[in-house]
Specification:
2 domains; three-stranded mixed beta sheet; Aminopeptidase; four-stranded parallel beta sheet; about 45% helix; alpha/beta; about 260 residues
Length: about 260
């Protein structure tokens, strides 16, 4: 399943949040329809509404279509700007990491070489629509792009306009997404649902930070500790897997 949210931020035209993700997924589906019209697995695309109001559209879909969640091979979500995809991990699913690593090996070098692969990684905690599926145990991952000052310039501002879009990067992203969808569909093995132990990872991270504090002259250790502090994105490093939130089905709060 491909994933991006259609409700762009309304302070401007929402070009990079998430017009670019929507464009990427639409173009990837166009390519797939052109060159791969009979996939071995069904390929869906979600253009979600109300992401900006709390992932409402994707949460509602995951609630209403348990059969899709149960049978999902992988969900690929893009929602952080116009840059070329540069970060990929398994989103906390070791089997997803193993499959993604193998799929990326088949991607042309000019597309895959700029990508940093983060192994099993950690789950998305609610910042974008893949979290609506992660909380239900489905392997759903975020495709992280070069941010081009996304978080401190265009994100949720009146500067998020069409002129910020880098179309050469979007072409590369669409090709990558189409290739990954093809490879996921053709794969003879199914992505497993086992999850990383977040409590153990958090303990290891804290031990690294404590060691760096005890040996401040060790610059290598300090850099590793700093990298550990940054894991988990703006929400920090999670110690428990995210729980699902029920999607509101009405705009009238008295009826929810």
């Amino acid at each position: 399943m491909l994933s991006a949210h259609f409700d762009s931020w309304d302070g401007s035209s929402g070009a990079t949040d998430n017009g670019t993700g929507t464009i990427t997924m639409m173009e990837a589906m166009r390519l797939l329809k052109l060159v791969y019209p009979h996939p071995k697995r069904t390929i869906l695309v979600g253009h979600w509404s109300s992401e900006e109001e709390g992932l409402v559209g994707s949460r509602a879909f995951s609630e209403d279509h348990a059969e899709v969640v149960k049978g999902m091979q992988v969900l690929l979500n893009q929602d952080n700007g116009t840059g070329r995809i540069a970060r990929v991990s398994g989103g906390g699913f070791p089997s997803a990491a193993e499959h993604l690593s193998r799929w990326l090996e088949a991607v042309p070098a000019d597309i895959k070489e700029p990508i940093t692969f983060g192994g099993a990684g950690i789950p998305g905690g609610g910042g974008s629509d893949h979290a609506s599926f992660v909380c239900k145990g489905a392997p759903a991952v975020e495709l992280g792009s070069l941010n081009f000052d996304y978080f401190n310039y265009t994100w949720h501002t009146n500067r998020d306009t069409y002129d910020k879009i880098v179309f050469d990067d979007l072409k590369s992203n669409a090709a990558l997404v189409a290739m990954l969808a093809y490879l996921a569909s053709e794969d003879s093995s199914t992505v497993g649902r086992e999850r990383v132990d977040l409590a153990a990872l958090a303990a290891q991270r804290q031990a690294l930070i404590d060691s760096a504090a005890a040996a401040p002259s060790d610059t290598v250790l300090a850099r590793r500790a700093a990298a550990g502090r940054g894991r988990g994105g703006r929400g920090g490093f999670p110690t428990t897997w995210p729980e699902c939130t029920v999607a509101p089905r009405t705009t009238n709060p008295r009826l929810q």
